Every structure is written in C-alpha cells, then in structure tokens.
Amino acid sequence: MKQTTTGQAPTLDPAFQERMFSTMSSLAGSPATRGVVVRFLQTLIDRGYRLTPAVPLTEADATVAFVNATVTPFKATLAENRPIGRICHYQPCFRAHGEHPWLFAFGMTGLLADIDSDDDLRRVAEDSHVATLAALPDHRADRLHILLDARDSDLVGPVAKAAQRHGGKLHVLDAPEVSTRWEYGEGYALRGRGITYYYRRPDVGCATECRPDCRCARWQPLSNLIVVQAGERRYAEVGFGVEITAAIPFGPNAYALPELADRVEAAEQAGLSPAQAADAVNLFRALALLIEDGAKPTGKGPGSVLRKFCLRLLELFAPLPADRADVLLERLGAAPELRSVLGDERERRARAGARNLKTAAAVLDRRPETSDADLHSTYGLSKAQVHSLRQARLRPPRLERGDAVAVVSPSWQGAAVFPERAARGLKDLSDWSGLRVAQAARPESGHAPGSRQARAEEFNAALRDRDVKGVLWMIGGLTAAELLDLIDYDAFAEHPKVLCGYSDATVLHHALYARTGVTTFYGPAVLSEFAETGGTPEYTRRSFRDLTMRAWTGTFPRFADMLDEFVDWAGDDRARLPEPARARTVLRPGTAQGPLLAGCVPSALQLLGTPWLPDYSGHVLALELTDDDGYGTAHAARDLWQLRHAGLLDRAVGLVMGRPRRWTADQRAELDRVLLDVCHGLTFPIVTEFEFGHSDPVLTLPVGVPVKLDGEDLRLLEPAVR
C-alpha cells in the first residue's frame, strides 16, 4: 500500500469511523489520534486483514489484567489450538491495575494472525512493520527502531528483512533492560516473546549512541509484535498504543494530547495536583468506557473494576467542594449515567463506611487494645478514620436524664459565701435538664476544708465514682493550679465523664487533655450561669444540652441578645436586662480545621513550663479573657504576647476570641489591634466577639473535638459525646 501522508484523507469507511470514535470517554477524540488509528487499520485492510468490530469491555476476560476486549475473547480460541485467520482491530481498553503516569484508559489498535510457517512469520512481520510506519505522525523511517532479544534468533531474519525493505533500524541486544517476554494472566497456558517498536526522538537523550532500552527521553515505546505459543500452534499479536503514538508531535507525554490536556487542565483548575488531575482523567475515561458498555458495579469481573475505579475517583474528588466537583464532572463531559453511578457508589460507600465504623467502635469498646492494622484490614478504615475512632473513644458518654452529676469547687469556695445562690443554681439545672445535680461529697480525710488536699480529694472522688456521670464546676477562682500534681488522671482516662467549667477551670481542662486526650467542656458553671437571676438563659441551656446530652453537630449559634450588666450576688435578685448582642468580627478572614482547644488566657499561662501543658499544634484555639476588676487591654496584651513568645500560637491553625464582658468600644478596638500585632507573621484566621467564657448567654465548647472555622462561623464536625 502507498503510505498515507498528512495531506491525504484516510479511506477507512467514515460510518465505521463514527462508530469507533463516538464515545463519552473521547478516546481518539482528536483528528491526530484518529489519524493514527485509521492509517494503521487501512494499511492492514489493504494487506488482506479482516477488521473486527469492537467487543464490549464487559465481555472481556477478567483474568487478563491488561484488558483488550477485542483480542481477549480470542484467547480461548488460541488456548484450544484453533485457527484465528488474520484480523485487525481498534478497541478502547483500560489497564485495570495501572499506575500514574500509565493511562488507565486508552485506545488500542493491532492485529492477530495464525503463523503456520516461516513464510507466515515473515509476512506478519512486514505487515506490522509497514502499518506501524504508516501510523506514525512522523513517517520518516529513520525514526523507527526495533528492539529484539538475541535469544529469539528465529525472529531476526523476518524483522531485519522488513526493516531493510521499508526503513527502520533493528537492534539485537543481549539481556535488554526492557522485557521481551509476556504472560497472559491466570488460567492461560499461553506464552509470548517478540519485539518492541520504538520511536527515536531527534536531539534528545543521554548519549549519541544510547540504545532503545535506555531510559532516556530519546526512546518512545510504540508497540509490540508478540509471537504467542499455544501448544503446537503459533500466533502473532500486535498491540499498538494509540495515544502514545499520537502524542509524538506534542512531546513524550500522552497527556499533551489535546483531548487529554484540556481535561487535565480542568482538573488542576478545580484544585487537584498535576498527578491527581492526570489520574482523575484516566479514571473518568475508564469509567466512561465501562458504563457505555453496560457495566454495573458488582463484586466480580468488569463490574468490580468499575466499582474500584469509582471509589478511587471519589477519593480524588473528596477534598473538593461539592459544587466544584460537579463543575469538573461537567467539564470532563460526564453523561447522566456516569453521574448516577458515582452518586450511587458515594451513597453505598457512606452506608458501608457508617456500618464499619459502628462495628469497629463496638470492637474498640470491648477490646481497646485492637491494633490500627486490624481495624484497617478488617473494616477497611483509613488512617484518618482510625484516628477519629480512637479520638471518639476518648469522648465521654452523653449525659441522660436521671444521671448523677457532682458539682465540685477546685478553686474558690464560693458556695459557702453565696449559699442561697448556689442552691438556686443546683435546683434550676436539675429542673430543666432532668439530671440529679448535687454538690460533691467531701471525703473524710482530716484535711482542712478548702485546703489543696481537701479540694483535690473532692475532685478525685467525683472522677472515681462510677455512679457519677458528670462533674461541673461550682465556680472558678485562682487556685486550681495548686492541684495539678494531686489529680487522678488515670481514673479519668479509664472512665471518662462530662466535665464542664470555665475560667480557672482552664488549668484542669488543659492538664486532663494533655495527660489523657479525653474531651472536656469549656462551658457554664453553677454559681455564675445556672444560678442566673430569672433562670438560666435559654441559649445557655440549649448549648449545654446539645453538647453534653444530645451528641449535637453543626454551626454554633449566634445570640440575638446578651446580658452584660452587673448584678450584685449578695441579695440583688432582679433579673438582668438584655441588650442587643455585639456582632462577631472577622479580624482576619480564612478557613481552618482542627481539634478545638478552649480556655482563659491568664489561666492557660499558668501551665507554661509544666508537664501539664497541652500541645497547641494543629488546634483551632478558642481563647478568652478574665473579667476580674482592673483587667484591661494592657493586661490582655501582656498575656497574649506571653503566649506568642512561648511559641504556643506558632502552630495553631485558627483563633476564636471570646467576647470581653463590660468592655468599652475603645477597649474592644484596642484588643483587635493587639491581636493583629501579636499574630503578625502568622496566617491563621481570627474571629472575635465569640459567645463563650465570661459572657452571657454562653456557649459550651468541647476541648479536643474537630471543628471548622470559616469566617465568623464555627462548625462542630463530630459529636463531643458518645
């Protein structure tokens, strides 16, 4: 046949071309790629080969990892020693176990022919050689090189003769670095050996005389001519990677092809890395092929490959916002069927993942010593899921109506000073929560009431009492740090329970978290919040119930009103008047995600230099300031700079600043300036005027539970209780 040049139109039947190339996956989607296919097949048809129609991938033999659905159905014929004739084909294919930068999905063109004599071998060698030359976008024969293992001496003559007649250079090599031996998968007694065609790029490479099995950029593998042995019979098989050949004018990378490059660029613009983008395009094309051929997700055969590719694509898309992933699918050209399959697999995976997590959680409850490797292999959990599951084991059981809750006073003995207010707080909390709330029993130890030993014994007794499900602070103070070396951390780690308090409670919250990792709650205390004249504010109630009794997740609410005025606890029983709440302020925009670490800054500083200081790295910090008389912006600047100079802010990922009580507008503006100055050079987002700590109503914030900060919104991503 006279070679087709770039200026001549291929003569392959246009209707057949339309059937071959009209796929959702856009294999052979550009004229350059179609030209490779048409020139190769037209050459073989002109030389007497029969063109076989494409066979659905769903009919491919699943035992062959390198799936070529047109040729694979003939493997059974080969294994039975029956004749094939001479056929040629074009078929969309995929490599079921490929890795980047291999194409998962690609176009394969080739031939299959009986070899009954040496003449047949010479003829097929020439046919494949001429068709390969015709397919090249650059037809110069000096660009075609053939690698042959010296052990295959019977192939030297036919291949050399084809090269002499039509151009190209033969390399007969001892121990070539690239394989010239093939096997056909589990269950086949077929073996192959043969030659590899290479395209030689001019003016690139590691040395002028390097050979085709060199790994440098000069040599581009194109195709293989394989002599297949099946019993006493021999067959010739050629497999020709269309995208690899079509990419020659664009460079050594098939991803430079127009139909691939545009899609890879779209995936990168969506937020994927270059390697992820190439994999996403590969997976999409393979899914498109399988779905077009009618594959359904199953546990076996092509359906199992479809399911595996779906899951891998969903994993790549997981970090992308849902709307961005949808736009990317549209730009890739996803048909409704593909979108439907992905949606179904996403839901199936979510259901299966939820079941596996639930089962694994039950296993950890029974056998905490279960290894991460066992959780991964048995339940398919990722490292992140295993970590999250173990963290969830460090969260206390939720409080339920009727549970006993002990109220402790690790610092100031305020209940003795304001007994009526304390009694009101205990009753109000019991009435609306349904909990059995009482002051903690004081152990008979002989220590003076209020001494550090007595306070520690009271606190430890509450931690150790199996009947007590929650421990609340009566009030804060200044002396919790005195107890650090007396706390029974092991008892709390062995049987976590809800601990809730704020201000000076920071010292014990942080120490318990540093030693055990168990979640505690930075939230209301009895004497200050639950004893509020006029009853506990509804927002305070709701947040406490949500976080400790309802396993709530979601965005922490804003409050329409606040209670900022001072009412003397010594006999003034009037309800405070609400006023409009100050709006949260985004001091530095951005998003951040990590476990939450809440506390009062002056109290947290007491742990510097001690073994009870938690690691602030990776946390979203929720920090607030005391409302002690005289504490103002100068004190706040001093304390915040100490945090910065101690390095505690350096590896935080976000900062939520609590609303100061009874500060003027000028003081608040000065605090904002101080925060920006202290955090200069750090890039995390900052939001101020958040409703927790020394403020009313007050949010309950869990220590150690993942949150997402986005602008002024703080979202709790996982329940804080079990």
Describe this structure in words.
By secondary structure, the protein is α/β, with parallel strands linked by helices. It has 23 helices and 26 strands. Strands 1, 2, 3, 4, 5, 6, 7, 8, 9 and 10 form a 10-stranded mixed sheet that branches. The chain has an 8-stranded mixed sheet with strand order 16-26-25-20-21-22-23-19. It has a 6-stranded mixed sheet with strand order 12-11-13-14-15-24. The longest helix has 31 residues, at 336-366. The protein is elongated. The termini are far apart. The relative contact order is 0.07.
Keywords, separated by commas or semicolons:
ten-stranded mixed β-sheet; alpha/beta; 722 residues; single chain; 26 strands
End-to-end distance, in Å? 76 Å
Number of helices: 23
Give the percentage of residues in beta strands. 15-25%
Q: State the helical fraction.
A: 25-40%
Q: What class do helices, strands and sheet pairing give?
A: alpha/beta
Could you outline the blueprint of secondary structure elements for this entry?
Elements: H1 14-21, H2 31-46, E1 50-51, E2 66-67, H3 75-79, E3 86-95, E4 105-115, H4 118-135, E5 144-149, H5 153-166, E6 169-173, E7 181-183, E8 191-200, E9 219-230, E10 233-241, H6 242-246, H7 258-270, H8 274-292, H9 301-317, H10 322-332, H11 336-366, H12 372-379, H13 383-393, E11 404-408, H14 414-417, H15 419-433, E12 436-439, H16 452-464, E13 468-473, H17 489-494, E14 498-501, H18 506-516, E15 521-522, H19 526-530, H20 538-549, E16 554-555, E17 561-562, E18 579-580, E19 585-588, E20 591-600, H21 601-604, E21 620-624, H22 633-645, E22 654-658, H23 665-678, E23 686-690, E24 701-702, E25 706-710, E26 713-716
Parallel strand pairs: 1-3, 5-6, 11-12, 11-13, 13-14, 14-15, 20-21, 21-22, 22-23
Antiparallel strand pairs: 2-3, 3-4, 4-10, 5-8, 7-8, 8-9, 9-10, 15-24, 16-26, 17-18, 19-23, 20-25, 25-26
